[in-house]
Please model this.
Amino acid sequence: MAQEYYDSVIFNGATLGDLVKGKGPLVIPLATDANDGLTFTFTPDQFALICSNFEQFSLSRAVAASGAFPGLFSPIILRNYAGQCDTKVPSWITDVLEKPDLTSRTYYHALRTNTYLDPNTKPYIHLVDGGVSDNLGLRASMDFIAASGGMRDYLSEVGFGKTRRVAFIIVDAATQGRYPDGVYWTRFQL
Model:
């Protein structure tokens, strides 16, 4: 129901492919894979692992998954088609897994990412609110940056090689809340 609302009121049928076509900022919706608590990023690389079409995936569905707070909203379910397309395992995963380093953040990121490559053990991906696995939405970005070899390399990979400054803008679905000192805050809704 949330997906249909978002699509008709906000996104007007836009897809994830529409996000990457413009000259705007890099926007990456995040959700949590409820099966094992992993952060699921709505990126071309993530969709390539499960052999799904990133370009055609509904933006409203990604946002619905990102805000599907467990108990209040139903998870968004994706089918894992890994192995049914030409996608190769990214070299950073194979390189890191060949030389395990238990102190490396990239090693654990590779282990987690590698779980999507076996559709027999993970045939479906149940996505809920991204805050369940990564409340600030920064862990996934830091993992990608580390796996790429640093910020400059990551920005080059995603087509922003000439970028000089980076700002992370975190958006959540809350409309009001309370600070620890009892002061309430409210956000304006569209």
Summary: The CA atoms of residues 97 and 111 lie 7 Å apart. The longest strand covers residues 124-129. Residues 186-190 have pLDDT under 50 and may be disordered.
